[in-house]
Write a structure and sequence with these properties.
This protein is of the alpha+beta class. It is built from eight helices and five strands. It folds into two domains: 57 residues, no CATH class; 132 residues, Beta Polymerase, domain 2. Helix 4 runs antiparallel to helix 8.
C-alpha cells in the first residue's frame, strides 16, 4: 500500500474505532481531514480493517475485548428473537473489530420480509424503516432500532437488514481473504462461549 493510502487508512481507522463510522464514510472524511484531493485513491476495505486492528491493538487492547463480547451477546439476543428469519451477524461485531461505538448488523433471510416487521410490531418495538446498500450492492430494506446494553451502559444501534430467502446462498460465500463474511446463530454462540470469562 502506498504512503498516501496508508495515511488515509490509519486516519479512517481512528474514526471507525472512536466514532463508530462505517468504512466508506470514514475513508471520505479521512481524505477531507488530511486535505487531500477528493479523487485521491482510497485504500480498500481490507486495508482499512487491517488499520482498525492495529489501532485497536495500540489504543484499545484493554477495553475492546469486553466491548466486543457485550455486542456479540446483544446480537445473540436479537438473533434468538428473530430466529424464524434465519439471522446472520455481519459487520465489525462478526469480524471482531467492534468497539462500544459500533452498531450491530443482522441480516435476515425471509420468505416474507413483512413478517419480520410484523414481529417487531407485535413486540411493540419502535423502529425506523429505511433503505440501505446491502451486501450484494443492491438497495435493501432495513429496520433500525436502539437497544439498551447493560454491559456497556448505553444504547446500541441494531439494524435488521431484510433479504429474500434465496439470497442466503450468496451471503455465505467467503470474502476476498477466504473468511466468512457473516455467521449464523450457532457460529455467534461459539464466539460468545469462547470469549466468556
Amino acid at each position: 500500500m502506498d504512503t498516501r493510502k496508508a495515511e488515509i487508512a490509519a486516519t479512517a481507522a481512528r474514526m471507525v474505532v472512536e466514532e463508530g463510522l462505517e468504512y466508506g464514510a470514514a475513508k471520505r472524511r479521512a481524505v477531507k481531514q488530511l486535505g487531500l484531493p477528493n479523487r485521491s485513491a482510497l485504500p480498500d476495505n481490507d486495508e482499512v480493517e487491517d488499520a482498525v486492528r492495529e489501532y485497536i491493538e495500540l489504543f484499545s487492547a484493554e477495553t475492546q475485548p469486553a466491548e466486543l463480547l457485550a455486542l456479540r451477546r446483544l446480537a445473540l439476543v436479537w438473533m434468538e428473537r428473530m430466529a424464524p428469519f434465519r439471522p446472520h451477524l455481519g459487520g465489525a461485531v462478526w469480524r471482531g473489530t467492534a468497539t462500544r461505538r459500533s452498531d450491530v448488523y443482522l441480516q435476515l433471510f425471509c420468505d416474507d420480509a413483512k413478517a419480520a416487521e410484523i414481529a417487531l410490531i407485535d413486540h411493540r418495538l419502535q423502529y425506523l424503516p429505511r433503505t440501505v446498500v446491502g451486501f450484494n450492492g443492491a438497495p435493501t430494506e432495513a429496520l433500525s432500532l436502539h437497544c439498551w446494553s447493560d454491559a456497556l451502559q448505553e444504547d446500541i444501534g441494531v439494524h435488521l437488514m431484510l433479504y429474500d430467502f434465496d439470497d442466503v446462498r450468496g451471503a455465505l460465500k467467503p470474502d476476498a481473504r477466504g473468511h466468512s463474511a457473516r455467521g449464523n446463530i450457532e457460529a455467534v454462540r461459539r464466539l460468545v462461549h469462547d470469549a466468556a470469562p
